[in-house]
Amino acid sequence: MLLKSTFQIKNRFKCTIRVWRTIHNLSVPDGKTYINGKWVAAKSGKTFPVLNPANGEIVANVPDCGDEETNEAVDGCYDAFKTWKNTTAKERAGFLRNMFELQMKNSKSLAHIITLEGGKTLAESVGEITYGASFFEWFSEEARRIYGDIVPSPFKNRQLFFFREPIGVAGIITPWNFPNAMITRKVAAALAAGCTCVIKPAEDTPLSALAIAQLAEEANIPPGVINVITTSRNNTPSVGKRLCEHTKVATISFTGSTAVGKLLFEQSASTVKRVSLELGGNAPFIVFNSADVSKAVTGAMASKFRNSGQTCVCTNRILVQEKIHDDFVAALAKAMQNQLKVGEGLKPDVTTGPLINENAVRKVERHVQDALQKGANLILGGKIHSCGKTFFEPTLLTNLKKDMLISKEETFGPVAAVMKFSSEEEAIEIANSTRSGLSGYFYSEDISQIWRVAKALEVGMIGVNEGIFSCAEAAFGGVKESGLGREGSRYGIDEYVQIKYMCLGGLD
Ligand code: SIN
After folding, report:
1. Which residue in 380, 284, 294, 293 sits closest to 340, CA to CA?
2. How many angstroms does the Cα of residue 178 sit away from the middle of ligand 1?
């Protein structure tokens, strides 16, 4: 192991830190981040604590970096790009394959880190590590398929070529809800294309990013190719701005809220930067009369309660056609009561961990209160869970209306809110009546209806009779205000390459 633990253990936090150290055979040092191939502290010496959302204990302390460290990382990353872009595709494929294998080899430790810093259940964290590793695997294979074109020329003495070349340094700004996979989805594509990266992980979950940096070091990825800038909530806006406005950063890839995405987009305009954005959703989940109700309930459980309702593609509004409405609600209530167990993510039988922090709980509470005040019916849950102030009861509401906050904004919590509709046209109108367009789901056994509705929904991704569609092969991304560009799939590489046209003349 390259690095030894140097945690500043305070007695008060000894228990958590001991857990962190024993499970964490990756040994990322406390108070250090990874810039230009070195583990370094912030210039100011300042750190900020990473809290376990389940109990508020400090898991580790990480450097509170600012503009100075960001500039240093970008400079080193820019230099590293000059060499990395000239590696062969086969070499880059080999590095990425190593990353895949190292991530799978360390999956237990990496999953444990996710649960400690992000709160999700261990089973889901293990799933995230496999999902995250699949991007290294997929892009190790795609790296060798970044082809250009030879185009028929209109002139006899000229030949036209299009090259797809790496765009440069990528600024990668990632969220807390998938602290591993949202990094690997971007970094694997960037590295495959020949780009180098500066990662700015979410303030709540920087440890998974540091663990990825350590894997990169073990995989012998050259210094400067992957850098991590850890920042507190206070420093985050200025580091984000620095990355967007830096002339040596060629592209920004961000996953997170629509509000922050719009700000980064604006900030990137000054340098006319490539920007790819995967932003918030407000996913409709439509159950038509023709649906198999039991399959629809299984899908709703998966798409609503994954990560305690904290994914961008989580169902937000459940629309059920009137004939089957009552049967669906009864079956969903039963499934929620029988299948969901709230508690700390490290406990084996828990399905629903804490939300990321108390602010997140307050938002969920506000949405539920607003719905109840405007006439929703409370079937299950509705308040903070007895497990603690970051836990929320799995909640089922009916009589959702268009003017309620849940209809308008992403709730990001374990609240299933059901609205009754009568016709297919009405369901499509309701589903599309939002500026978000990330994902949508519907259940129908009528093939003509499946075709019509799939075409009519204004979203980037659709699950038809399926509640979970994420995989490395999926073209992940939204339309309208839910984003720009695609991640994963064969399109993921496009975010990190630019086309160079060459006209070779004088061929008489
Ligand atoms: C997200 O919540 O942003 C990503 C979810 C996924 O990749 O399935």
Report:
1. 380
2. 7
